[in-house]
Amino acid sequence: MFKPRRLWSQLWGLQGMYLCFFLHSQATGSSYPNHGHIPIGTLFNMDAEPVSRSALMYAISTNNELRKGGKGITFNMLSDDVDIDSNFAVTSKLCAQMSSGIFVMYGSTSQSTFKTLQAYSAKFNMPFITPDLSGTIHKEHQPQMLFAKPVYADAIVDLVKGLNWRRLDYVYDNSEGLLRVQHVYDRLKREQYGIEIGFRRIEQVESAHEDLRRLDYLDREKMRNIVLDLSSLNAYAALLRQIPEVGMNRHGYNYILGTLDMLSLDVSRFLHGGVKVYGFQLVDVSRRQVQTFLEEWQELEPGIWPGAGTNLLQTDAALSVDMLHTIRAALTAMIKEQRDVFHYVFRRGKMYNMNKTIGIQCNSNPPLPWMHGEQIYRALKQVDFDGLTGHIQFDEFGQRANYSLDIITAGLDTGLAKIGKWHSRYGLLDNDQDLPVDPIYPQQNYTEWRKVVTTILEPPFLMLRGNVEEDGSPLIGNGRYEGYAKDLAMEIEKRLDIDYILDPVTDGEYGREVENGSWTGMIGQLVSGKADLAIGPLTITAARERVVDFTKPFMDIGISIMTLKPERQKAGLFSFMEPFSLSLWVSIVIAYVTISLTIFIVSRFSPYEMKEHAPYLDHFRYNFTLCNSFWFAMGALMLQGSDLCPRSIAGRIIGGVWWFFVLIIISSYTANLAAFLTVERMLQPVQSADDLVKQAEISYGILETGATRVFFEESNVTTYKMMWSYMSSASPPVMVSSLQQGVHRVQNSGGKYVFLLESSTNEYINNRLPCNTVKVGPNLNLEGFGIATPHGSDLKESVNYVTLKLKEDGTLHKMKQTWWEEKGECGVDTGNKESKKRSLSLNNVAGVFLLLIAGLVVAIGTGLIEAHYIKTQYLKYVSTLDSRCLQHEYSNGNGILNKYIQS
């Protein structure tokens, strides 16, 4: 939406033009449309407030400004003030505007002139949109008529039934109210709802004391139920002012106000004494669309835009804006369906009908209806969108459909509060007959709609979105921001039904006390009364609790350590040895040698290990030679076993103990090996505050201002006192003036600088590019971010309750997950993990392959040496034998060789 306060100088001429046009229209009654602008005729009641016309003019001006240069449909408004009860005045102005040339008519009407306006509209096919009389029109075809205001007589009936009233007095002040009375009575009778209804018309609302006393005197029932159905907000204001003066605002009185502007009325005198007041509200000020419009509406100059410049939006003004958007949507749809649909309408700056006459002439004979009137009317009834007054949709009779009204109550126990909704299709959405107010919410002062929420621009709590929406419209108001704090404020708004505006601090500080006793930042905004809430990364401290109130923490945090993410440790050739330390490997080797020697010695002394050596029966040999003993121990260590098995009891005890030892060692090694080979580890030189204090190579620092500095200044813990002593006197200085400066210093220090900051910010930065920082170690303390309010604020308890509910139902956790992880830029490696699982690569097990190759080479070399040695020894043995013995032995084949080998 266009933002006038930012482009005031550019729009001053435009606003002046519309003001001049407005004054001119009063004198002449009409104006010729400019070529290219869609002309709209308007008729306004001369006795009514000018807010409806101002809203329509403002909507046209913003529409034209956004779509200048041929980017869309623009409008030109012909406007007249008339006596809405005079048929002659209404038809004169209507015909004058139609003769000038208009596409659609928007205007007020009354019971006296409605039939006349409807007849002219039907005769000349002129679509007529009115914000009046919708509550009294029966469901019947009204050619060319479109009713902007929703029907609410059925809402009154449903609320009466929901409150279980069995008697009521219906008070009205004009003929429209009388028709609504008839509708209420007929429906209750048709549904056979047992109720007694009394009727009273008040002729002079400004002086109704006698009428009210007579009403009070005639009915002395203990419980008095009264429906007030008046013609205007001024009438309601006058009567509500007189009711307490005659004593009808005490316990036992219950009122239903038949208005769609309940929140525009002053009901402060009905909040005491036990009286209950119910009413309806069409414009839901908690909706973002309404907030955005109000932000601009209250900035307008009332001298140029009568009725504007307030933080309340009356139903008539909202209807004017919505109906302009309805017209634009209908015409846009027509042009989209047939691009040249209006091609022959404009010629030489004038609008022609049927290519014959300028405009639509009332005195033409025969009558020439508006050539596009029927098509425009059908397009108007087909629009479907959400506007300031809720869902905009029309039924076949031209009346609003699928809309809802907020039900508002005022009373001693509730204050002014919303208790439910009424929907045109489903009726009361709260099925409780007593319509109790949810006790969660305290009394709210709805005369001060906008709550100022002070905050600070710090990612991810609050960030600027940009300049324009996706559709090209400018970002204004709260729509300019996004982040965790914005989402939290929206949750509070939704659950407490309040309006708010975000106001980031300009000094960029959270809140600290200065020498003169004043406060800066968000705390300063609360103390000075410039803000109602503070939502952001605001740490709860004792010093701040002295000047403001805090809710329970919405986020648990602590001071944490940020350091440069170290490079991942590359796997070495012998990484398979890393599961055990060097001392453990040495111990295993010693145990292996010891077991081998022990079983060798035990076998030598045990007769069970002796075995006769055939063919020499007088010779014995031992299976567990020194080599066999080492082989037995090696086989068990490698879980492969051997052909040898101890026969002696002592040998078997040694074997069993060794096997148990091997079982534990191999299981431990296998478990550790899986972790060491599949997890890449990073070496962190600093893991805690104690590590920082014990070293001198790495410097560390904090923000110059804020809760982190206060923590170190006031801490009595020895470690933290030493850290503060270092940081406060270090040269060059290690404390930084901004968060960005501290993070930049970490990223460019080569691992020689550590930054101490709140854990939530630490985690967020670690998830942002260039993803080269990491949070290490536990938090140094336990703190929390809280929502702050001024001392004695009536918002504290309700906001505190909402905060607890959001934490219990997991909403706060989901919000943090969204802004910290899902919107992160570092993928699955979130930056706060010290390790990450990966698949095995050749580098992880390269040493095992080298060991295998080395074993093969050694085995081949040993085999060659062994073969050469056997051959040499055999030749020496053969040369010493007698040739006869040699021949004899040779005749026995290889016996000698075998004998030698066995010996």
Automatic annotation (TrEMBL):
Location in the cell reads: Postsynaptic cell membrane
UniProt site (Crucial to convey clamshell closure to channel opening): 686
- What's in the keyword line of the UniProt record? Cell membrane, Disulfide bond, Glycoprotein, Ion channel, Ion transport, Ligand-gated ion channel, Membrane, Postsynaptic cell membrane, Receptor, Signal, Synapse, Transmembrane, Transmembrane helix, Transport
Molecular function terms in GO for this entry?
A: ligand-gated monoatomic ion channel activity; signaling receptor activity
Membrane topology per the record? Multi-pass membrane protein
Q: Which domain of life is it from?
A: Eukaryota
Q: Which residues form a coiled coil?
A: none
What range does the record give for the signal peptide?
Answer: 1-27
| GO CC annotation | postsynaptic membrane
Membrane spanning stretches: 582-602, 622-641, 653-677, 845-865
Q: Does the keyword Nucleus apply?
A: no
Per UniProt, L-glutamate binds at 537, 539, 544, 708, 758
* SS bond partners: 771-826
Q: Does the keyword Hydrolase apply?
A: no
Q: Where is this site: Interaction with the cone snail toxin Con-ikot-ikot?
A: 805
Ionotropic glutamate receptor C-terminal domain location:
450-822
Domain Ionotropic glutamate receptor L-glutamate and glycine-binding, by residue range, is 460-528
This protein's name: Glutamate receptor subunit protein GluR5
Q: Which gene encodes it?
A: LOC100533314
